[in-house]
Amino acid sequence: MTRGEKTAIITGGGRGFGRAFGTALAAEGMHVVLVDIAGAVAEEAAAAIRAAGGSAEGLAGDVVDEARIAEVMAQGAARHGGIDILINNAGLHSDEYGQPITKLGYAKTRRLFEVNVLGTVCCTLAALAHMKRRAGASIVNIASSAAHMGGSAYGDTKLAVAGLTITFARELGADAIRVNAISPGLILTDTIRAELPEATKARVKAMQLIGDDGEERDIVEAMLWLTSDKARFVTGEVLRVTGGMAAGV
Ligand SMILES: NC(=O)c1ccc[n+]([C@@H]2O[C@H](COP(=O)([O-])OP(=O)(O)OC[C@H]3O[C@@H](n4cnc5c(N)ncnc54)[C@H](O)[C@@H]3O)[C@@H](O)[C@H]2O)c1
């Protein structure tokens, strides 16, 4: 099956990495479904992909709304008779959710774990029936360098994402579905540019071994490789793309 006969579902697809992933996969000829809790933003991103000649649809959906996600997967699968790629990218990581648990409080900590961890489970389970028996099927979860450092509720959710990556890789290997994760370091997406304090950016950057700023394209390239046949023997891995920030941890 060529990339042009494939369908990719990308959660949190309206902006940031999600939009960049959708744009890159559509440029390879795939049909991409951008799912986002902000439905209008997802549709706008899909319209931009279509305007550039790609095939895309933008759908509203919360990654933990099991009924809605089932509908989204079924709609996405209708185009080419199944789903080939799932990118579990939607995540809460704004400054608000980066606070210590003692400041975050229970309700927000619960939502953080819900979206970042259970959203990955909900979407994976919903996509599964549509991915089985698709040659080259692959799932990529978006973790974070914060998972490898400890000391934050956000990092703990991403540690769970790394754990789930291995668990699902074990469970889905028999169905020939590869499951991997990317742990991005500090990448200047719009949310990071707008919300992360300059002092935090400088502190994180000082931990990098490579002095350049991390860009969306660095994560897009990792995703393209992991979802391609070039990575056909790779599953259960967490690929750190951090400029060396998490080296040795
Ligand atoms: N930017 C970075 O430096 C960085 C570093 C490490 C990890 N990450 C991770 O990468 C992912 C994407 O980051 P980004 O910077 O592109 O984020 P972003 O905030 O720019 O975009 C995230 C998108 O997810 C959507 N979303 C949020 N909650 C949702 C839900 N419940 N259901 C569906 N959609 C939802 C938002 O509406 C938004 O469009 C996140 O999981 C984040 O934790 C980002």
Structure summary:
The chain is α/β, with parallel strands linked by helices and 249 residues long. It has one domain (3-232): 3-Layer(aba) Sandwich (Rossmann fold), CATH 3.40.50.720. The protein contains eight helices and seven strands.
What does this structure look like?
- The protein is 47% helix and 15% strand.
- The N and C termini lie far apart (39 Å).
- It is built from eight helices and seven strands; from the N terminus they run βαβαβαβαβαβαααβ.
- The longest helix is centred in the middle third of the chain and has 31 residues, at 101-131.
- It is of the alpha/beta class and 249 residues long.
- The mean pLDDT is 95.
- The chain has helices spanning 16-27, 39-51, 66-78, 101-131, 153-172, 190-195, 198-207, 216-226; strands spanning 7-11, 31-36, 55-60, 85-88, 138-142, 178-184, 238-241.
- The protein has a seven-stranded parallel sheet, with helices on both faces.
- It has a single domain (3-232), classed as Rossmann fold.
- Nicotinamide-adenine-dinucleotide is lined by residues 11-12, 14-18, 36-38, 41, 62-63, 89-93, 115, 119, 142, 144, 184, 186-187, 189-192.
